[in-house]
C-alpha cells in the first residue's frame, strides 16, 4: 500500500466521523449509509454504493452475489450499527475482501458511543488479514 492508498482510507474514515458526529449513534444502518454517501460526495470521494460482488467457483461465475455497502478506490467499506463489532462482522468483510481479491477494507460501526473504524489489509500469499493501527501501519506503506 502506498501513501495515497493510506490517505484514501483516512479520507473515508474522516467522512464517517463527520456522519457520526452529526447523527450520533443508534440509528439504522441504511440511514448511516445514505448519510455517508452524501458526506463522501460532498468531499469529492466518488464511491460505488451497494457494490455487487461476483462469486466464482473453479472459474465459473455463480448466480449468488454479495453486496458491499461501498467500494471506493480499491477499498471495500462495510457499515454496521451495533453495540460493538463482533467476529461475524469481521468475517463478512474478510470474505468480501478474499472473494474479490481486494486488499484493503474498512469496517465502520456507527452504533458505539464513539465511531469505531477498523482498517484491514488482506495478505493473499499468507491468506491473512492485518488490522492496521497507529503502531503498525507504517510497516505496510511503500514509497
Give the topology.
Elements: H1 3-23, H2 29-42, E1 48-57, E2 60-72, E3 75-80, H3 87-100, E4 104-109, E5 116-123, E6 128-132
Parallel strand pairs: 3-4
Antiparallel strand pairs: 1-2, 2-3, 4-5, 5-6
Helix pairs in contact: 1-2
What does this structure look like?
By secondary structure, the chain is α+β, with helices and mostly antiparallel strands. It has helices at residues 3-23, 29-42, 87-100, and strands spanning 48-57, 60-72, 75-80, 104-109, 116-123, 128-132. Strands 1-2-3-4-5-6 form a six-stranded mixed β-sheet, with helices on both faces. Helix 1 packs across helix 2. The termini are close together. The relative contact order is 0.18. The model has no long low-confidence stretch (mean pLDDT 95).
Q: What's a quick, concise take on this entry?
A:
By secondary structure, the protein is of the alpha+beta class.
Largest sheet: 6 strands, mixed
Low-confidence stretches: none
Q: Approximately how much helix is present in the residues?
A: 25-40%
Kindly state the number of beta strands.
6
Q: Calculate the mean pLDDT score and round it.
A: 95
- Sequence of secondary-structure elements: HHEEEHEEE
Shape: globular
Radius of gyration: 15 Å
Total DSSP helices: 3
Strand content: 25-35%
State the secondary-structure class.
alpha+beta
Strand order of the largest sheet: 1-2-3-4-5-6
How far do the termini sit from each other? 9 Å
Which features would summarize this protein structure in a list?
143 residues, globular, six-stranded mixed β-sheet, alpha+beta, 6 strands, 3 helices
Amino acid at each position: 500500500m502506498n501513501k495515497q492508498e493510506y490517505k484514501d482510507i483516512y479520507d473515508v474514515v474522516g467522512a464517517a466521523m463527520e456522519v457520526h458526529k452529526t447523527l450520533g449513534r443508534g440509528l439504522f444502518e441504511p440511514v448511516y449509509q445514505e448519510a455517508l454517501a452524501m458526506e463522501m460526495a460532498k468531499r469529492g470521494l466518488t464511491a460505488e454504493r451497494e457494490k455487487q460482488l461476483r462469486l466464482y467457483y473453479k472459474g465459473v461465475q455463480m448466480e449468488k452475489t454479495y453486496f458491499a455497502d461501498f467500494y471506493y478506490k480499491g477499498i471495500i467499506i462495510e457499515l454496521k450499527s451495533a453495540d460493538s463489532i463482533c467476529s461475524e462482522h469481521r468475517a463478512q468483510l474478510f470474505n468480501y475482501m478474499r472473494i474479490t481479491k481486494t486488499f484493503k477494507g474498512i469496517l465502520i460501526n456507527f452504533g458505539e458511543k464513539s465511531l469505531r473504524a477498523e482498517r484491514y489489509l488482506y495478505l493473499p500469499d499468507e491468506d491473512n488479514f492485518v488490522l492496521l493501527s497507529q503502531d503498525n501501519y507504517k510497516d505496510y506503506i511503500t514509497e
